[in-house]
Amino acid sequence: MIKKVILFCSVFCVYSLGAKTLARVGNREITDTDLEQFKKGTRNVSSLAGQYDDKHFMDILINYELALYDAKKKGLDQTSEGRQAMEKGLYNYYIYKMVDSKYSGSEFSTSELKKFYKSDPLLKLNRLCIPFEVKNAKSFKEANSKLSILRSELKSRKISFQQAVSEVGLHNLSHLNGTFDTVFLGILLPGEAATVSKMKQGEVSPVIKLDGYVEIIQLVKIYPFNSIPLAEHNTRMKIHNLETTRDKLNQSLRNRYKSLVTVYE
């Protein structure tokens, strides 16, 4: 397993100029700086990397160069599949340089993490939905009316949530009904999240119309910040920032090069 991880990391090894040459493969040099960068990269992705000596890492770097040499000798870099593979590698490196490298090893302050958690807390929810036929006004009206009645009975505590689920019965979206103990606000559908974010603990939402079904959500619990380890908070915020920054990059590329793009109907 460690060899697979290390081989993956070696793709990102950037060869240095002006350092001490430790080995040569064809016209490519492997320097002491390359070795140290490679070792550092493997430590970042695997705790097992510390078991291996420099010879082990040098062998991997040499094997990597030999494989590239043989691939080029066989003309694989000139094939359609080879060019596609190189383009994918370049794309991944581009995303890494433009986005991912900026968040490598990011550590956020507790105040930053609390602010982020407030926007995307961990919740316990009850959800009840009823499907309707799309583009069928009568079907929608019937589903909406039935769910509205159940909502009123839930709010007035005439029935429990479990009784409301029984009233709805089984249907093709029954898997969406029930109690969900640990759900982050951010994974809900936009229409759900927009509603739930304004709710207080214990509150029942208005009827929410979604694609082919209507639903209500009861916000049972908002878990406190300290219910999750700080390390997990940090990881979640890092992933969020990565995704947000990638989205911004994609949008900037669309705006900058919009004259290059033609979409045919």
Structure, described:
This protein has 265 residues and is an alpha+beta fold. The chain folds into two domains: 102 residues, no CATH class; 101 residues, Roll (Chitinase A, domain 3), CATH 3.10.50. The chain is built from nine helices and six strands; from the N terminus they run αββααααβααβαββα. Strands 4-3-6-5 form a four-stranded antiparallel beta sheet, with helices on both faces. Strand 1 and strand 2 form a beta hairpin. The chain is elongated. The N terminus is likely disordered.
Secondary structure elements and their pairing?
Layout: H1 2-10, E1 21-25, E2 28-31, H2 32-45, H3 54-73, H4 80-98, H5 110-119, E3 122-131, H6 137-155, H7 161-168, E4 178-184, H8 190-196, E5 208-210, E6 213-222, H9 230-256
Antiparallel strand pairs: 1-2, 3-4, 3-6, 5-6
Helix pairs in contact: 1-2, 1-3, 5-9
Helix content: 40-55%
Instruction: Report the major sheet.
Output: 4 strands, antiparallel
User: Quick one: overall form?
Assistant: elongated
Please tell me the overall pLDDT. Answer: 88
Order of helices and strands: HEEHHHHEHHEHEEH
Can you describe this structure in just a few lines?
With 265 residues, the protein is of the alpha+beta class. Helices cover 50% and strands 15% of the residues.
